[in-house]
Amino acid sequence: MRRITFDLDVLRTFATGMELGSFAKAAVRLGRSTSAISAQLKKLEQQAETSIFVKSGRGLALTEAGETMLAYARRLLDLNDEAATAIHGSELAGWVRLGLQEDFGETILPEVLGQFARAHPKVRIEARVARNAELIDRITSDRLDLALAWSDASARTPHSDHIKDLPMCWVGPAGEPRNWRVSADEPLPLASLEAPCLLRTAATSALDRAGIPWRQSFVSPSLAGLWAATVAGLGVTVRTPFGLPPSVQPLVPADSGLPPLPSLGLVLHRSQAQSDPATARLASIMLQAVHNAIPTY
């Protein structure tokens, strides 16, 4: 078999386009023309000697080989960036202000902060775990440099990268039958975070459309309180499958009588169009950690 040496610059274009969900956005991010991006993608398929993309509606989808290529591209780029960091990483200095939704505080934050601090000991990080509305407000008022948050049409910022749409799901206590059913005798007890909450709004809207009566049985300022109420059986709640503790589990809508729920966008917001080197490096580590942590739905 002929030995193939992949072009890292081409792989970065490929990975960036898939990360942003658009190769037009990748062209802007990388400072290249769309024709140059197209040429690089064509070169990637030539180097791989197989089809990476397939037509899907008006856009492109990955073939099985393309999915494999994307996973290896990310690993190769990570190794390349680690090598660059080992040589020059300690030169970065400054201050980065990072915000995250509570769903990610325990799952992603330790890994991201640890990796970044080891590579860039001269950069100080101020991290804040907060609700969506506060994170968006701090990004738009330039009190945060980066924020990882849930997003819908009402929570857009001028400089943001859409990472992935995750399905919302009804959640009940672990160990209970997954085919738990809505009672016809009383309103559905609903546990949620304090308003404003994108997931609470999605839950009540879905219930109203389905004609299912509900009552607010528990309101919490934090996820810890929400999980405690759910485990205690005070009500069902709505989250994404990401980061669910073992004490709770998703319910099956078709079996439970609960209505289907929409997906929720996960977005990395930036306060500035062009980030300083330290912020850009933290954003890169954050995006990779998210991709590694979130399974394919």
From TrEMBL:
InterPro entries: LTTR (IPR050176), LysR_HTH_N (IPR000847), LysR_subst-bd (IPR005119), WH-like_DNA-bd_sf (IPR036388), WH_DNA-bd_sf (IPR036390). The keyword Cytoplasm does not apply. GO terms for molecular function: DNA binding; DNA-binding transcription factor activity. SUPFAM superfamilies: Periplasmic binding protein-like II, Winged helix' DNA-binding domain. The keyword Aminoacyl-tRNA synthetase does not apply. Keywords: DNA-binding, Transcription, Transcription regulation. Residues 6-63 form the HTH lysR-type domain. It comes from the Bacteria. Belongs to the LysR transcriptional regulatory family. This is DNA-binding transcriptional LysR family regulator. It comes from Phyllobacterium bourgognense.
